[in-house]
Amino acid sequence: MDSLELPEPVVSDGRHNSTANDTTEEFKVELGLEIRLFREELSAVREEIRLFRAEVKDLKSSFAATDERISTLDSRVDVLEKRVMEGSGSRLEAVIAELRLELNEKDQELLGNDVEVSNLPEENGENATHMIMAVATKLGVTLRESDIVSAERVGARRRAPGEGEDAGAGAAGRPRPLVVRFTRRAVKDELTAAARVRRGATSADLSQSSAPRPFYVNERLTKYNRQLYYQTREVGRRLSWRFLWTKKGRIYARQGQDTPRHWIRSADDISRVFGVAS
């Protein structure tokens, strides 16, 4: 009878158990590190949320302050609009009026070398430069052609009623003014002074075919000053003021020989000086 063979006992290998234990420990360590990192990130997120909430709070405060300032400005605008509507904007109107006067005076300065000869007969083919030189000679002023920058008739030519294009020389209605610019203001001043001395001079002896008529040499004025001077003369003559004149583009009025001189800059000055509505 064969003897029964028993299986050999299995002897455990300590190396396998050691490896499993090491793996478990490494996993625990890595898991602990991951948890720690997660907690750190969570703390960082919480800190960011806290800072964000603080910034939102600051923004709300800033918005509230801005809204308050806007409301204050809106109230001030309402007050200003109310003042303007109630007529307290007159100061602004006064400032604008003063600026307009200053601009007019600047424009007048640009005409400082100019004269305007009015009521001088106008003829076809005339030479404006020769005409003003003839006028100067009649007034006793020696004028050279080099003293003249420009000379021309200005404005639309006016014709007498019923006249056609074939009307002869001197047949036109009221002549256009002759505007002359000199190279120097002294020449202009000399000519206007001579015209005042020889007030009433006519166009006789000026080699014109038209009937003689009185002509007038004055400083050239801006459109505003020309209209203002006309108004001043109308009121002054009606009230028998003796002296109404212009000098260096400014309009002056004086009631009598020993009365003060008044500078007229606007229609309001006419009312103030003459005591009547302009």
From TrEMBL:
Q: Which domain of life is it from?
A: Eukaryota
Question: Region labeled Disordered — which residues?
Answer: 1-23, 154-173
Where exactly are the transmembrane stretches of this chain?
none
Q: Which InterPro entries match?
A: FP_C
Q: Tell me yes or no: is 4Fe-4S among this UniProt entry's keywords.
A: no
Task: Please list the coiled coil stretches.
Answer: 35-62
Query: Which residues does the UniProt record annotate as the domain FP protein C-terminal?
Result: 222-272
Record-linked Pfam families: Baculo_FP_2nd
Q: Does the keyword Chaperone apply?
A: no
Which keywords does this chain's UniProt record carry? Coiled coil
Query: What is the recorded name of this protein?
Result: (diamondback moth) hypothetical protein
The organism encoding this protein is: Plutella xylostella (Diamondback moth)
